[in-house]
Design brief:
The complex is a heterodimer. In chain A, about 30% of the residues lie in helices and about 25% in strands. Chain A is of the alpha+beta class. In chain A, helix 11 (about 310-320) packs antiparallel against helix 13 and helix 12 (about 325-330) packs antiparallel against helix 14 (about 405-420). Chain B is built from twelve helices and no strands. Chain B has helices at about 25-55, 60-70, 80-90, 95-105, 120-155, 160-175, 175-190, 205-235, 235-245, 250-285, 290-300, 305-330. Classes of the chains: A alpha+beta, B mainly alpha. Chains A and B meet through helix 3, helix 5, helix 8, helix 9 and helix 15 of A and helix 2, helix 3, helix 5, helix 7 and helix 10 of B. Chain A: Pfam families: SBP_bac_5 (PF00496).
């Protein structure tokens, strides 16, 4: 869904071009599945209430409030402010930084901070505080892995020029920088609080955001209370100043039946991840929003380090073997979109819809396998070459990353691949195996399933930079080392010209698609459903984080 | 543990003839209780050791896991990244040293600090154990009430009533807890709105989670009691009682029941352990806080101190429950000596 070339949207925009600006923002976004605008019932009209408590039913509970997982980013939005925010058009807009200058060589970003902002513990939010944060996130002894993955290769250092001016220096130009800084992982914490040590920062990190963490009842909920002094809302917030409601109770409702039941019974005002089976019902009763998170979609990344996927023909044959679109539609009941491109999801800027679109063609898959020498079949119908079966272990982190619907998609794909002679073994990894690095080494898997949410195609650099002895890249799960692919992405990352960036990113996606390195399945999607009496809950763009600071109830 | 008990065998299944026991010395009784305490301590030690070693020796690197979980990633970590974590948690020490260190802490009541939550394990457990104990103990009590009623009314009867009782027990014993919980949730909380959807901390919220655990357990305990009940009904003392003109229900409730429940009481010690593991399901389905959910989360993030701490606690509850069961025998039937 590249925003600049969607004709229907352009027509709508033209049609309302003369209307008032408010009307434009309301009508300009076509209410359709996947772009984060409302698809359900309209909000109930009425008089706004003061105060109130939003009960929000979330799904997963991270071990700490702050960290580098998307689960942490969701929480960050409630209690942290970032330097910049991402607006609906995907442009970085002011937040803690009211403005910024980029040096002519594009190696220094100078941020001018909003004066008079305080953290909720009373500490002043100044340039020194910002510097402390970046230093802490990139501290080689205990880095925030996600922050380091984005800017570690580029970051040269930071300095506080005066009380409200912070300069960030880069080793080489990095165009996605501002977009990257909009993610919750880059939120600015109180340096006083950071100095308290690991335990306090795990359960009660301190920011300057619209809400303050009041208490965390593990396994149940995190209670956020309103920050009455809040004066640093991002430019794209629906209002400035403190949040309207008194509290947000962020409940962990892991069971899907319970989560949706909690909404229908009125125990929750908003829930996250509406179960696909309830989506149709939800759109008829609640305000629903679905945001296709940009970044890498859920995709099968093929490991080129060893047989069988070291041969491009075998990889392509695998891509041709299954009707992935049908598999996704069946498992997700049409609620979550199919994403053929395995490198980027369709809501990522500069997404190339033509990359990696292998339409199911078992005959072609068979020919490719014949060409690659897998001509024999054994008693089970599995292809054999030189006495070796065409088998592959497909590893996925069940539950933590791939839910039951995603597992059904994989089963369908594996079944269809068997028809052309692949012996696909699905290996559900437990969370501890997965995060414990059991499947980190090249010889432990043949294919790997997962996603990575990110607002920028610059993510390609993290996933496809070469995995070299002297400059290791653990995020290159395909073990695909190609200097020309890395070169394309680097050129795109450092280019100042949007058209040129787009061309390079597109070429990179084509290489990944043509080489059949990542087989796309479905997008990572944030979906929420809210009671009609609760107005203005929205999903922000960088990570699909729900935003509650503008929300209020009507009587 | 053999559950067969009647007037001629002791509860531990030995074929010791039932010699007069009241004349035995109290010192022998004390020795027996001491022995039981000793074996309880042994169970605790074994549980702690096995859990600790299993967790430590499981594949995958703990330092890597800690770093990855905090960033939601699955990647290899460089030695430079791992070194400070290994240092902080003592992962580089030989395993026997880590083990001794762990046991030492255990003796002092120190269960260590959770890797993931960065909080003392005893604190985490103290926060979470209350709701779980309330849930499991209530479930055990409710299960017993169900058993007492159905057994007394239907056991040993020929005809439709007895058949119905047996059928109910068999069906409910086989109900999967997750399925039962979901059905109860959908019907009684979501559709009928008789109970809150999220169980919270109130009494009304406790009903459905308790039933989720109690119904299958009642079926299980009931089928044990039923067989014993039928057997007891054939005993001469029943005939004697009836011949004294006692009504059927009185005979059942006042004479037969006492004999029939002993094997089910024996199993209750085990049931307490099973309830604790079943608690995680009820806790998830009804969004209750508790040790079950904590254990699953801790195990899936390989939080060694927390998993070990919870397992030791569960083992402790289990042992205490079994000691109580042994004590209960002597209350139900004073002729039974402490096994």
């Amino acid at each position: 869904m590249p925003r600049s070339v969607r004709p229907a949207r352009a027509r709508v925009l033209m049609a309302v071009a003369l209307s008032a600006a408010a009307l434009l923002s309301a009508c300009g976004q076509r209410p359709e599945t996947g772009d984060g605008t409302s698809t359900g019932v309209a909000a109930t009209p009425g008089e706004y209430e003061t105060g109130g408590v939003i009960e929000y039913g979330h799904e997963q509970e991270p071990p700490c409030v702050h960290g580098g997982w998307v689960q942490n980013a969701y929480l960050a939005r409630q209690y942290l402010d970032n330097l910049v925010s991402l607006d609906d058009a995907g442009t970085p807009v002011p937040w803690l930084a009211t403005s910024w200058d980029i040096s002519p060589d594009r190696l220094t970003y100078t941020f001018h901070l909003k004066p008079d902002v305080k953290f909720s513990d009373g500490t002043t939010l100044d340039a020194a505080a910002v510097k402390t944060n970046f230093d802490a996130y990139l501290n080689p002894d205990s880095p925030n892995g996600t922050v380091a993955a984005y800017i570690g290769q580029y970051y040269a250092g930071g300095e506080a020029l005066d009380r409200t001016t912070y300069a960030l220096h880069l080793k080489s130009p990095y165009s996605p920088l501002l977009t990257v800084l909009t993610q919750g992982y880059f939120g600015i914490q109180s340096p006083t609080a950071l100095a308290r040590g690991a335990e306090a920062n795990c359960s009660k990190p301190v920011g300057s955001g619209p809400f303050v963490i009041d208490r965390w009842d593990r396994n149940r909920s995190i209670t956020f209370v309103r920050n009455p002094d809040y004066n640093s809302a991002p430019a794209n917030a629906k209002h400035q100043g403190p949040a309207y409601v008194d509290k947000v109770i962020w409940k962990f409702l892991k069971d899907p039946v319970l989560r949706y039941g909690s909404l229908t019974s009125g125990s929750s005002d908003v829930i996250y991840n509406v179960p696909p089976i309830n989506w149709a019902d939800a759109t008829g009763r609640f305000q629903t929003r679905q945001y296709v998170t940009p970044g890498r979609p859920n995709a099968i990344t093929l490991n080129v380090d060893h047989a069988p996927f070291d041969d491009v023909r075998v990889r392509q044959a695998f891509a041709y073997s299954a009707d992935r679109e049908k598999a996704v539609e069946t498992a997700y009941l049409g609620v979550v979109p199919y994403n053929p491109n395995g490198a980027l999801s369709q809501s990522t800027p500069d997404y190339d819809a033509t990359a990696g679109a292998y339409v199911r063609d078992p005959a072609k898959a068979g020919r490719l396998l014949d060409e690659a020498g897998w001509t024999q079949r054994d008693g089970d119908g599995i292809r054999v070459k030189d006495g070796r079966r065409l088998s592959a272990r497909v590893v996925y982190a069940s539950d933590a990353i791939i839910g039951p619907e995603g597992a059904a998609v994989l089963q369908d794909v594996a079944y269809q691949a068997r028809q052309v002679g692949f012996d696909i073994e699905l290996v559900p990894a437990t969370q501890s195996e997965y995060f414990g690095g059991r499947y980190a080494k090249a010889d432990t898997y043949d294919a790997y399933v997962g996603y990575w949410t990110s607002p920028t195609p610059g993510l390609l650099y993290i996933n496809w930079r070469q995995r070299l002895e002297d400059n290791p890249n653990p995020y290159n799960n395909a073990f695909y080392n190609d200097p020309s692919l890395q070169g394309l992405i680097e050129k795109a990352n450092s280019s100042a010209d949007p058209a040129e960036q787009r061309r390079y990113y597109s070429e990179a996606q084509k290489v990944i698609g043509d080489q059949a390195l990542a087989i796309g399945l479905y997008t990572q999607t944030t979906s929420i459903a809210a009671q009609p009496k609760l107005h203005d809950v929205w999903i922000e763009k960088s990570q699909g984080e729900p935003v509650f600071s503008d929300a209020r109830f009507v009587r | 543990m053999t559950t067969l008990v009647d007037q001629t065998t002791t509860p531990d299944g030995g074929a010791t003839p039932s010699t007069p026991q009241r004349g035995r010395g109290t010192s022998a009784v004390w020795l027996r209780w001491l022995g039981k305490l000793g074996s309880a301590v042994f169970v605790l030690w074994a549980a702690a050791s096995v859990t600790f070693l299993l967790q430590v020796l499981a594949p995958g690197d703990r330092a890597t896991l800690l770093l990855n979980l905090s960033s939601g990633q699955s990647r290899e970590r460089t030695p430079d990244e791992i070194a400070p974590v290994n240092e902080q948690y003592g992962f580089i020490d030989p395993i026997w040293q880590q083990y001794l260190h762990y046991l030492q802490g255990l003796l002092h009541g120190d269960l260590g600090t959770s890797y993931q939550l960065q909080q003392p394990v005893t604190e985490v457990i103290a926060e979470q154990v209350g709701p779980t104990l309330v849930l499991t103990v209530s479930a055990l009590i409710v299960a017993w009430l169900l058993v007492l009623v159905t057994t007394t009314l239907t056991a040993g009867r020929r005809g439709p009533l007895g058949g119905l009782g047996a059928l109910l027990e068999t069906v409910s014993a086989g109900l999967p807890q997750y399925w039962l919980g979901s059905i109860l949730l959908v019907v009684f909380a979501i559709n009928l709105a008789w109970f809150p959807v999220e169980s919270g901390t109130g009494l009304r919220g406790l009903v459905l989670p308790v039933l989720t655990l109690a119904i299958p357990l009642a079926g299980f305990l009931g089928s044990i009691a039923r067989d014993e009940f039928a057997r007891a009904l054939d005993q001469p003392f029943v005939l004697t009682a009836r011949s004294r003109g006692l009504g059927d229900l009185s005979v059942r409730a006042r004479h037969v029941l006492r004999h029939s429940v002993i094997p089910a009481v024996t199993v209750s010690g085990w049931a307490m352990g099973a309830l604790l593991s079943g608690a995680v399901i009820a806790e998830t389905v009804f969004a209750r806080a508790g040790i079950g959910q904590t254990l699953v989360a801790a195990a899936s993030s390989r939080d060694v101190p927390l998993v070990s701490g919870i397992v030791v606690l569960v083992a402790a509850i289990y042992t205490v429950a079994n000691l109580l069961v042994d004590f209960l025998y002597t209350v139900i039937d004073p002729r039974i000596e402490v096994p």
